[in-house]
Amino acid sequence: MKKSVAVVVALSIVSIVTIQGLHQLPGLAQQRATMRGTGIEPLSLDDNSGFESILEGRTLAGWDGDPAFWRLQDETIIGESTPENPLKTNTFLIYRGSRPADFELKLEYRINAGNSGVQYRSVELPDAGRWIMKGYQADIDFANQYTGQLYEERGRGFLAMRGQMTHLQTGGKRVIANLRGGDELKAEIKNNDWNHIHIIARGNHVAHIINGHLMAQAVDDDASARMMNGLIGFQIHTGPPMKVEFRRIRLKQF
User: Is 162 within 8 Å of 101 (Cβ atoms)?
Assistant: First the structure.
């Protein structure tokens, strides 16, 4: 057998053995082995290349919200309502450092009750009151009924439920792909513990990823209603007493 032919045969055998053995490799090892042959880097939640922290860590410099409900503790933003200090309307902590258009945002959150969310490409509504926002929201709630979905606060409402990719047009919303079952994705969200959220907004396409799992995405062709840039913020929702925490907040703009 010629040397070149032998090499090809040997490589083919190695490839077959590798492919047949992939199912025996656990989790990340299997993923890395699979990716090695494609040239695609495997998922890494700790990859923050090009991202910059937008939380100074010692103070809330650059952030603006009602100090009766928002504070910084141990480099973590805390939003909290109590029986003695209830909310009368949804309130937001607003990042004043920029109004990003195309960007990626990564952070970790933990919630012990109630409902919250991450606002982006949003505006303020001063006529409705101070620290009130309208715009896209990556929804968060303790029961994980809505966590991961795309909601538009004070706007078009539900835009993509968990497990959906939607196409948004003037006067209409349509599912164009099912990602995974909503309950199946719910199982990937940790209850009363830290979760990693990754929001991507590029052009008229937005996507929500939690703990490395794609939760919802949308193509927004509703030019009369969509926002292509705007403010970032965090929400405390009206209702029973609750506490939500945000940390390791990083932004990458394009």
Answer: no
186-244: per-residue pLDDT in tens? 999 999 999 999 999 999 999 999 999 999 999 999 999 999 999 999 999 999 999 99
What would the two tokens of residue 210 be? 């939690």
How far, in Å, CA of 10 to CA of 6, rounded? 6
**Residues 71-96, mean pLDDT to the nearest whole number:** 97
Measured CA to CA in angstroms, residue 51 lies from 42, 191, 198, 252 at distances of 18, 27, 12, 4
Note whether 195 and 45 are within 8 A (CB).
no
**pLDDT confidence of residue 37:** 76
Structurally, what CATH architecture does the domain formed by 52-253 represent? Sandwich (2.60)
Distances from the Cα of 105 to the Cα of 101, 208, 248, angstroms: 11, 10, 10
The residue ranges of every structural domain in the chain are: 3-36, 52-253
Does position 2 have pLDDT exceeding 50, yes or no? Answer: no
Residues sharing a CB contact under 8 Å with residue 22, sequence separation 6 or more, in sequence order: 30, 33, 34
Six token digits for residue 36: 């090695």
List, as one string, the DSSP characters of 97-139.
S---SSEEEEEEEEESSSEEEEEEEEEE-TTT-TT-EEEEEEE
pTM, full prediction: 0.86
